[in-house]
């Protein structure tokens, strides 16, 4: 994609590397788990009973984690037909409005993500319809388990910390759901950064116009040579 | 009234250049907070469940990944060589071969832009070299590329199936005849134009070249067999005494699993057989993969015997990581939109909008023909603003209940919607394939629009045929899977 | 302010996963909404969201605890995460027929189970019946050994997984909407379901036949959140519960007929139904009953005993 982003400095290079590796790893794992299950069923008449659920969890992780990366490198899709028709000052104003709307969107999501996740992890959700106005006394849902995913390690600690010492048979839900507050927090950070970038530069936007921009750039370069 | 405001807000935000996903999500959240008690927590739940709760949509990342490996791994150029060997000697042969190659690549890939990029990159340049105009080349590929979503597998069909709860397997089968039909119609049009305008024809390269190029492309084309045979079953032989030798062996996997198998298979072909990426690939002196044709300085491909450890290292090779990452990126981009379109769908359902619209339409005495024309118009207009899969998520739940009431087959409706999406991709001002083709061909958008026009007319005729002859869509799924069960 | 409801009315959203007019649960939900909207007009307004259009069975309980939906009726296995006792309904051959299931649910043990999730924030309001489960497969199933090595689609409940393993079959989790296609193409060989679902989803079309095993029960529990119930005026709650219990009694009484009609409809449509002789049935029971001991701690011996006592009294 027309990546307007190049990491500057060693720290952001490392973070960039981690983000891209995570995205590849999550999709790679999804594929391998699903493929393994097909082989197990077709060849060995067997299955990983938790394979399907785990794959769906990884799918949610991939996307919710990756959205923030998308804001960072400006890869989310938008309509730039109108933008192309107006002058620079109007473009800048439109970009600012766009960034503002996006910021409100991720902040509302942030409240929602916390409110949703908190009870599963034994924390309190916030009160308030639009804005967090305080903390509610949420009913603890630490006991709520996934359907089939086993707990790979730390079972005793999880039970003591999140389930009042009662036994977990399956992975508690707050673990897969953790991607919500975490991923949305990253979105908030990346959208703020993108907004600052637009204000500093006096131009730019949060969108690209289609999904194949970088592939097309490569192809165009190729066509130029001949 | 409130709903009209909701849609006006979405369109307004889109025009301002707000990301599509945010325009949908922001408007839905505002609507929900203003007009209902529904909590922000439920928005977060919907966002998570857009992925974790939709088993069907899981096919999308896998098909994208398979397509990623196919594009990086040199399948496209082998398919093109085979196409040229088959039809290149006809008048206008290279253009016809381009369409044929698009059809074959469409059968491996779930998206239209991917098809345009993979085939267009090579074919447009080749057509110009032998004397076709750039415009003609771009027009051909731009149109033929839309077959990516009509010929199975198809991301748009997956989304439609998920939104309406029809079977993906049925939708895929339903796309086969229309896909071939549309391709053949384009080829005939090109042939007629070529005869009239006396366009160049290639040399007949002989059966030897057909066989050689087929053998070379076969590893890629085998994927079609794996996907279709894996889902629907295939003829098989058994070697037990007393039993009949040939029999029909059942399917091995669901369409979603087929996508994952396709991705793994594409990785194996690209890394170990074609060796156009990964540890065995040929490299330019600077370490990069050769683009198009390797330069003389590039290293040769290695064989697995020379580097047996590649069996392990291929999984972690930077080419593999990069290809999977590219697939992940596109998945994220599309799913961000789809997830937010699902938020909008949730709001509309919560307010029981689809039923209200259906009741209104039906009490106004809407007939099937008016209804289908209306669907066409909505999609053609919506297609100007929206990414196709996001649009389907929003429109399908609105029109589906009406279609069922009017006795329209859900599979037929799905194919009509897909063909509309195809047309939306090549109509101005906004059309995904127009953008991609203009980029790939290095032409201004408006020239591509003009170039695509004659073929656009073909697709319109095709849309009319598909709309009024349901059997084109429903024949194969009914034959293989029995009549569609309609659940209200 | 939701469309269709008047200002000031208590809006009750009922989200379920079946159709509205043929499935026992859908019929009951539609009837409940009709009666509430007619008899409690001005006070309460019920909206039904069928076909998983709003939530699926898994999400709906979370949404209920969040206060985003008021009524739901998931299948009983969905409550196993709340209280392991609910596993008793999934255990194979625990109940001889629907009368036994009904009597067990009406007993003190059954009624106590409806209250057992209060500490998790849910209150059971009443059980809704679907029927007894049957096995179908792409080969004739007469003896339990016929199921050996076959792949069966199951709901992802530990008990149902164990039940399939006891048969020597391979349990396969799969989303409900994919089952027909998977049976048709042979991705899986069989499944277990009630007559209503076997007919409603046309599973019999793509199977060799259905064996009338009556080996398990598929029932639903209508639940509401404790917090929501507490928020209602006592009078409103009583009015609502009165209607609810009447609808429950009426539809549960009629479910036997729905079940029989669907069974007949399978036959009429050319489906094959295999009945088991007493000896054959005993073989199935012997093969699958070891699953009971596996889940004894979760279910409790006293509850199993209570169920068996009811079986005995129903048969006599
Ligand atoms: Na395709
Ligand atoms: Na368009």
Automatic annotation (TrEMBL), chain A:
Membrane topology: Multi-pass membrane protein
Domain Tripartite ATP-independent periplasmic transporters DctQ component residue range list: 30-124
Subcellular localization, as worded in the UniProt entry: Cell inner membrane
GO BP terms: C4-dicarboxylate transport
Record bears the keyword Ribonucleoprotein: no
Keyword Transmembrane helix: yes
One Gene Ontology term of the molecular function aspect: transmembrane transporter activity
Membrane-crossing segments per the record: 21-43, 49-71, 92-110, 174-192
Pfam families: DctQ
InterPro entries registered for this protein in UniProt: DctQ (IPR055348), TRAP_DctQ (IPR007387)
One cellular component (GO) term of this entry: plasma membrane
Primary location group: membrane
Signal peptide: none
Keywords, comma-separated and alphabetical: Cell inner membrane, Cell membrane, Membrane, Transmembrane, Transmembrane helix, Transport
Family under the similarity heading: Belongs to the TRAP transporter small permease family.
Subunit and interaction comment: The complex comprises the extracytoplasmic solute receptor protein and the two transmembrane proteins.
Function: Part of the tripartite ATP-independent periplasmic (TRAP) transport system.
Protein name: TRAP transporter small permease protein
TrEMBL record, chain B:
Keyword set, alphabetical order: Cell inner membrane, Cell membrane, Membrane, Transmembrane, Transmembrane helix, Transport
Residue ranges constituting the TRAP C4-dicarboxylate transport system permease DctM subunit domain according to the UniProt record: 7-472
Entry GO terms, CC: plasma membrane
Ranges that cross the membrane: 47-70, 82-108, 114-131, 138-160, 172-196, 217-237, 257-274, 330-348, 360-382, 389-408, 414-436, 448-471
Membrane topology term: Multi-pass membrane protein
Segment forming the signal sequence: none
InterPro entries attached to this UniProt entry: DctM, TRAP_DctM
A single GO BP: C4-dicarboxylate transport
Subcellular localization, as worded in the UniProt entry: Cell inner membrane
GO molecular function: transmembrane transporter activity
Chain's role: Part of the tripartite ATP-independent periplasmic (TRAP) transport system.
PANTHER family: C4-DICARBOXYLATE TRAP TRANSPORTER LARGE PERMEASE PROTEIN DCTM, SIALIC ACID TRAP TRANSPORTER PERMEASE PROTEIN SIAT-RELATED
Official protein name in the record: C4-dicarboxylate transporter DctM subunit
Lineage of the species this protein comes from: Bacteria, Pseudomonadati, Pseudomonadota, Alphaproteobacteria, Rhodobacterales
């Amino acid at each position: 994609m027309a990546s307007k982003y190049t990491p500057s400095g060693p720290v952001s290079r490392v973070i960039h590397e981690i983000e891209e590796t995570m995205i590849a790893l999550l999709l790679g794992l999804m594929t391998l788990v699903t493929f393994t299950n097909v082989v197990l069923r077709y060849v060995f008449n067997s299955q990983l009973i938790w394979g399907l659920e785990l794959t769906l969890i990884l799918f949610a992780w991939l996307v919710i984690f990756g959205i923030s990366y998308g804001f960072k490198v400006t890869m989310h899709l938008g309509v730039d037909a109108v933008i192309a028709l107006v002058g620079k000052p109007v473009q800048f104003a439109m970009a600012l409005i766009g960034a503002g709307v996006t910021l409100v969107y991720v902040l509302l999501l942030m409240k929602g993500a916390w409110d949703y996740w908190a009870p599963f992890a034994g924390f309190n959700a916030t009160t308030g319809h639009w804005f967090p106005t305080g903390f509610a006394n949420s009913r603890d849902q630490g006991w709520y388990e996934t359907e089939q995913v086993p707990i790979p390690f730390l079972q005793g600690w999880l039970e003591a910390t999140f389930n009042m010492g009662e036994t977990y048979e399956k992975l508690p839900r707050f673990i897969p759901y953790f991607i919500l507050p975490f991923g949305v927090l990253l979105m908030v950070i990346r959208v703020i950064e993108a907004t600052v970038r637009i204000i500093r530069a006096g131009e730019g936007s949060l969108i690209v116009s289609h999904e194949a921009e970088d592939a097309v750039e490569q192809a165009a370069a190729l066509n130029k040579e001949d | 009234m409130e709903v009209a405001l909701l849609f006006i807000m979405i369109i307004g935000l889109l025009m301002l250049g707000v990301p599509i996903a945010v325009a949908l999500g922001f408007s839905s959240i505002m609507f929900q907070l203003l007009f209902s008690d529904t909590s922000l927590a439920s928005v977060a739940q919907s966002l998570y469940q857009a992925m974790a709760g939709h088993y069907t949509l899981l096919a999308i990342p896998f098909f994208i990944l398979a397509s990623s490996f196919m594009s990086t791994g040199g399948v496209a150029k082998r398919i093109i060589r085979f196409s040229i060997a088959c039809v290149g000697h006809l008048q206008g042969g290279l253009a016809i071969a381009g369409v044929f190659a698009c059809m074959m690549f469409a059968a491996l890939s779930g998206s239209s832009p991917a098809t345009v990029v993979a085939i267009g990159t090579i074919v447009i340049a080749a057509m110009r070299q032998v004397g076709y105009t750039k415009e003609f080349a771009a027009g051909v590929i731009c149109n033929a590329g839309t077959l990516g979503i009509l010929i199975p597998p198809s991301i748009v069909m997956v989304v439609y199936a998920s939104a309406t709860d029809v079977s993906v397997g049925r939708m895929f089968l339903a796309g086969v005849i229309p896909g071939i039909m549309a391709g053949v119609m384009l080829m005939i049009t090109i042939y007629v134009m070529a005869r009239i305008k006396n366009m160049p024809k290639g040399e007949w390269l002989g059966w030897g070249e057909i066989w050689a190029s087929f053998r070379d492309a076969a590893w890629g084309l085998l994927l079609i067999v794996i996907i279709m045979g894996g889902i629907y079953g295939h003829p098989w032989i058994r070697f037990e005494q007393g039993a009949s030798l040939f029999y029909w062996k059942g399917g091995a996997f669901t369409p979603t699993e087929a996508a994952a198998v396709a991705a793994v298979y594409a990785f194996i072909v690209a890394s170990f057989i074609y060796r156009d990426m990964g540890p065995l690939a040929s490299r330019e002196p600077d370490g990069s993969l050769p683009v198009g044709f390797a330069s003389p300085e590039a290293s040769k491909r290695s064989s697995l015997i020379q580097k047996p450890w590649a069996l392990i290292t291929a999984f972690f090779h930077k080419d593999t990581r990069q290809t999977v990452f590219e697939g992940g990126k596109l998945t994220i981009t599309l799913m961000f939109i789809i997830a937010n379109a699902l938020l909008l769908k949730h709001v509309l359902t919560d307010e029981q909008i689809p039923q209200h619209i259906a009741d209104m339409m039906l009490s106004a005495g809407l007939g099937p023909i008016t209804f289908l024309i209306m669907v066409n118009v909505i999609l053609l207009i919506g297609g100007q603003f929206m990414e196709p899969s996001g649009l389907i998520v929003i429109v399908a739940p609105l029109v589906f209940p009406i279609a069922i009431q009017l006795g329209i087959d859900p599979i037929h409706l799905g194919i009509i919607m897909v063909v509309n999406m195809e047309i939306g991709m090549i109509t101005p001002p906004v059309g995904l394939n127009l953008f991609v083709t203009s980029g790939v061909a290095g032409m201004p958008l408006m020239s591509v629009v003009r170039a695509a026009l004659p073929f656009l007319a073909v697709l319109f005729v095709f849309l009319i045929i598909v709309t009024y002859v349901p059997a084109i869509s429903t024949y194969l799924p009914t034959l293989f899977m029995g009549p569609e069960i309609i659940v209200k | 302010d939701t469309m269709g409801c008047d200002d000031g009315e208590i809006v009750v959203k009922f989200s379920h996963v079946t159709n509205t007019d043929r499935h026992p649960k859908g019929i009951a939900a539609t009837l409940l909404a009709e009666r509430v909207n007619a008899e409690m007009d001005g006070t309460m307004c019920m909206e039904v969201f069928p076909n998983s259009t709003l939530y699926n069975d898994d999400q709906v309980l979370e949404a209920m605890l969040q206060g985003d939906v008021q009524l739901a009726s998931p299948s009983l296995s969905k409550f196993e995460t709340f209280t392991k006792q609910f596993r008793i309904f999934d255990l194979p051959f625990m109940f001889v027929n629907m009368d036994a299931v009904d009597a067990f649910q009406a007993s003190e043990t059954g009624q106590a189970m409806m209250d057992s999730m209060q500490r998790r924030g849910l209150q059971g309001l009443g059980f809704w019946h679907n029927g007894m489960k049957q096995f179908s497969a792409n080969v004739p199933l007469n003896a339990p050994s016929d199921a050996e090595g076959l792949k069966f689609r199951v709901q992802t409940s530990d008990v149902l997984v164990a039940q399939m393993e006891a048969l020597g079959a391979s349990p396969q989790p799969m989303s409900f909407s994919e089952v027909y296609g998977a049976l048709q193409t042979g991705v899986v060989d069989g499944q277990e379901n009630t007559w209503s679902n076997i007919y409603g989803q046309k599973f019999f079309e793509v199977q060799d036949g259905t064996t009338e095993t009556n080996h398990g029960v598929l029932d639903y529990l209508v639940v509401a959140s404790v917090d929501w119930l507490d928020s209602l005026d006592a009078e409103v709650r009583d009015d609502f519960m009165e209607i609810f219990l009447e609808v429950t009694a009426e539809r549960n009484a009629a479910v036997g007929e729905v079940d029989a009609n669907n069974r007949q409809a399978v036959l009429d449509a050319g489906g094959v139904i295999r009945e088991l002789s007493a000896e054959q049935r005993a073989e199935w029971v012997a093969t699958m009953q070891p699953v009971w001991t596996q889940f004894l701690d979760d279910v409790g011996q006293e509850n199993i005993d209570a169920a068996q006592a009811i079986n005995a009294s129903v048969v006599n």
